[in-house]
Recover the amino acids of this structure.
């Protein structure tokens, strides 16, 4: 990768280093969204359907955590995984695994908070029907999550957007090691500071293109689903 | 073979529901037993919907008692209700019925087709339920309620916003269902409908049961002033 090459050339010639970076970025962000969905969707749905003392407080904290600064999330995971930290023996710091954990921490509140809102709105609509059908608590959660699935796709996209765009958390716990933990956003930050603007711009274009394509695919799936399922 | 437990007779004894200082249902005593449909009539806010919900077991009483087949806390397995604005699950028409069947542990593709045919929606099982017309959604809601094989079926103004053709379709289904031995309890604004369908008619006003009589008697010889005014088309306020 040289500074003389234009951003477009880098993208069009399929520069292997560039594509390794793209691959790792996607792997980390999609893994983090998957983990966050597995935690956040059931958590948000349960929060939507249960009533307990302090629930409002939990909702406010969850909503506030949507704005958790990535570097702070990175710092928290750094302390957890550093050699002297409680999970230091796992040896995960400065690996893609640590980056997935940090992004999961960032994305889970977004998915949980938006799921809570989506499911609660649907619950207000469905409550009487499900009560009349004698559906139990677990059945309600499953029904609402399933019937809200098209809205939840948008929730997952919001989570993916957060993960794909952030740099603070993964640079702290991943270390931006070339060929190992370097992603599009960390590479853009580094190359910009080094003055290699074509590469930074090339990566930026690829990042934007990927986000647009993923959103377009999700939108298409949502439209098709709504057409056939209602 | 053990006879299935029935929710009938359903007996309300001085059933009262209050929300703060407002009494929505005021010491209503009524019995629903096997037989022709019971029509609940009365102006808006008279307590018809609240009575249906309480009889379904969805609303706790403030005081008084409800028993289903002699039991105070019978599970709602043999009762079903169609709300005035039924909510279609975001699934196909067939899946909406399948969902209700699954809740009763009897999922069965053939049964879904039978129920769709019963309400005149044969061949429309794959259509998204939310894309059906208002009348079709009401009929699907009826099929979904019937999937529970109810002994008693509550219908809350099922034809309130429907055109005459759709209203007739619903009334035909109600007659059909009643002929199959299901007790139908139905609220309506439409006195003509009460005449057409009612085995007996109960008039509610301000949460109180004003009059309850066989339909012919209710219309021919109303005993109370409220009933006479209501039948004459006067506004009960």
């Amino acid at each position: 990768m040289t500074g003389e090459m234009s951003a477009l050339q880098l993208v069009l010639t399929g520069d292997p280093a560039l594509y390794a970076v793209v691959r790792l970025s996607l792997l980390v962000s999609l893994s983090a969204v998957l983990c966050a969905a597995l935690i956040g969707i059931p958590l948000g749905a349960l929060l939507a359907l249960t009533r307990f003392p302090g629930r409002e407080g939990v909702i406010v904290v969850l909503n506030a955590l949507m704005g958790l600064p990535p570097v702070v999330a990175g710092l928290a995971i750094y302390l957890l995984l550093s050699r002297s930290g409680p999970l230091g023996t796992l040896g995960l710091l400065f690996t893609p695994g640590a980056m997935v954990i940090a992004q999961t921490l960032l994305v889970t509140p977004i998915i949980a908070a938006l799921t809570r809102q989506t499911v609660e709105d649907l619950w207000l609509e469905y409550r009487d029907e499900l009560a009349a059908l004698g559906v139990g608590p677990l059945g309600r959660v499953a029904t609402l999550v399933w019937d809200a699935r098209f809205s939840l796709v948008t929730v997952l996209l919001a989570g993916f957007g957060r993960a794909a765009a952030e740099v603070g958390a993964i640079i702290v716990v991943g270390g931006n090691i070339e060929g190992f933990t370097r992603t599009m956003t960390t590479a853009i930050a580094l190359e910009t500071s080094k003055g290699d603007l074509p590469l930074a711009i090339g990566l930026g274009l690829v990042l934007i293109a990927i986000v647009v394509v993923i959103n377009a695919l999700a939108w298409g799936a949502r439209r098709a689903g709504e057409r056939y399922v209602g | 073979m053990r006879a299935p437990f029935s929710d009938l007779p359903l007996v309300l004894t001085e059933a009262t529901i209050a929300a703060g200082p407002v009494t929505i249902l005021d010491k209503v005593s009524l019995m629903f037993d096997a037989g022709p449909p019971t029509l609940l009539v009365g102006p808006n806010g008279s307590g018809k919907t609240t009575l249906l919900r309480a009889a379904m077991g969805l609303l706790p009483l403030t005081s008084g008692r409800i028993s289903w087949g002699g039991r105070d806390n019978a599970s709602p397995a043999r009762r079903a209700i169609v709300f005035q604005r039924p909510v279609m699950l975001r699934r196909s028409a067939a899946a909406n019925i399948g969902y209700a069947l699954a809740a009763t542990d009897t999922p069965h593709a053939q049964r879904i087709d039978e129920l769709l045919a019963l309400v005149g929606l044969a061949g429309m099982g794959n259509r998204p339920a939310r894309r059906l017309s208002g009348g079709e959604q009401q009929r699907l809601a009826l099929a979904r309620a019937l999937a529970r094989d109810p002994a008693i079926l509550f219908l809350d103004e099922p034809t309130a916003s429907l055109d005459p053709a759709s209203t007739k379709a619903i009334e035909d289904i109600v007659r059909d269902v009643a002929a199959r031995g299901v007790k139908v309890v139905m609220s309506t604004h439409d006195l003509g409908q009460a005449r057409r369908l009612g085995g007996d008619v109960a008039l509610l006003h301000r949460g109180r049961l004003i009059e309850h009589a066989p339909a012919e008697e209710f219309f021919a010889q109303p005993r109370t002033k409220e009933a006479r005014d209501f039948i004459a088309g006067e506004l009960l306020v």
Observations:
- Chain A has a mean pLDDT of 91.
- DSSP finds ten helices and no strands in chain A.
